[in-house]
């Protein structure tokens, strides 16, 4: 069987073809037409048709998107690719391709990938976290994505940062209209903003990490604040979901020290005598989203 997965991103659209054992047979990537809804649909449809022309008819096609399909309208909502919001993306693509498709939020696809044959393979309940330009999350329960009554299960980034200190209130203003969201602290831009506030200089996260490793005090302090905030935010998830594993994805997941330092901090915030939940690096890295889209028909 051949399963096609598509990761529909704001700047790029990627396709992967996997067989039932997870072996990759094809990968293609094209630019996503900026702000052009019909052209975006055409780009996705062309990728599928070209893959099928090369490999033969695919058995299933799954699509990961920013945002989520509204339970009320069937249209996309909460997407940072704003030309997709309010549009019947799934319905329009099914009409173009003349076949049933499955569609899920890109964070859900990431979590499904890592739970299926990634870092958390074999775990019953997996929380997948994306910390990059923004933040996102997805929950997989025994191999199936938990979507939720409102299609927002796992969306931890737009909850307030737990147990905030006086200097963290009310917190930065978020694009969602509220202040102090987890995303404003734990995204890459959030770290940049936090460092500028305390150190007075504007540095990208990878530079902050490199300089912290070299002993620069201001950068070490920024990373320390980041780690404690991530520990608090994930402790909230553990207190509610109690997952068997948490997997980090996105650009911030490349900070290697997080995997030791954050679990060492979250014990003080989790309502348990001990915490056995592992914090894991992704096995498939940047490929997890598109691989998870291919697995959407599993189960």
What's a quick, concise take on this entry?
By secondary structure, this protein is an alpha/beta fold. Helix content is 36%, strand content 20%. It starts with a strand and ends in a 5-residue tail after the last helix.
Rg for CA atoms? 19 Å
What is the count of helical runs? 9
Average pLDDT level:
95
- How does CATH name the architecture of the largest domain? 2-Layer Sandwich
> Pairing-aware structural class of the strands and helices?
alpha/beta
| Number of DSSP-assigned strands | 12
The main sheet comes to: 5 strands, mixed
Q: Order of strands side by side in the largest beta sheet?
A: 3-2-1-4-7
How would you describe the overall organization of this protein?
With about 300 residues, this protein is α/β, with parallel strands linked by helices. The protein folds into two domains: about 1-110 and about 285-295, ATPase, nucleotide binding domain (Nucleotidyltransferase, domain 5); about 120-280, Nucleotidyltransferase, domain 5, CATH 3.30.420.40. Helix content is about 35%, strand content about 20%. It has helices at about 35-55, 90-95, 105-115, 180-185, 190-200, 205-215, 215-240, 260-265, 290-295; strands spanning about 1-10, 10-20, 25-30, 60-65, 70, 75, 100-105, 125-130, 135-140, 145, 245-250, 280. Helix 8 links the parallel strand 11 and strand 12 (about 280). The longest helix has 25 residues, at about 215-240.
